[in-house]
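Weekly sync, protein design subgroup
Attendees: M.S., D.O., the rotation student, P.L. (late)

Item 1: inverse folding check
M.S. brought a backbone from last month's batch and wanted to see whether the design step gives back something sensible before we order anything. D.O. pointed out we never logged the input encoding, so this time it goes straight into the notes. Structure tokens as presented (119 positions):
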């Protein structure tokens, strides 16, 4: 069974940094991309950053230049370094792996981790 577990969230003041980590375990044959999403209260889940296994990255306009997505391929772990945090970054952050455990690709999600930024 595939499991995705996030860590590293918390509460910080605006201007500070946090680093989120996400590890996937289980029998995966192939990973296509590792992604971060976030969902603020009363809002939909939005894409924050994409990292494909080929090295392609994409960031939401609101975080570009402040957030950096990276990975440790040996440990099947993806990171989200968040700098110059703003109160609008407050949300539940979800890790997503687009991967194949069998024939086709599926989305594997973590439970989410809270990030709270105070002004």
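Designed sequence read out in the meeting:
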């Amino acid at each position: 069974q595939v499991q995705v577990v996030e860590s590293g969230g918390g509460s910080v003041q605006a201007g500070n940094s946090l680093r989120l980590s996400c590890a996937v375990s289980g029998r995966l044959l192939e990973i296509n991309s590792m992604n971060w999403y976030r969902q603020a209260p009363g809002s939909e889940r939005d894409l924050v950053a994409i990292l494909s296994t080929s090295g392609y990255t994409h960031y939401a306009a609101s975080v570009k230049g402040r957030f950096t997505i990276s990975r440790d391929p040996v440990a099947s772990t993806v990171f989200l370094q968040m700098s110059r945090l703003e109160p609008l970054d407050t949300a539940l952050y979800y890790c997503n792996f687009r991967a194949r455990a069998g024939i086709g690709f599926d989305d594997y999600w973590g439970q989410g981790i809270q990030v709270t930024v105070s002004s």
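Discussion: The two ends are 41 Å apart (CA to CA). The chain has a mean pLDDT of 95.
Action: P.L. to compare against the previous round before Friday.
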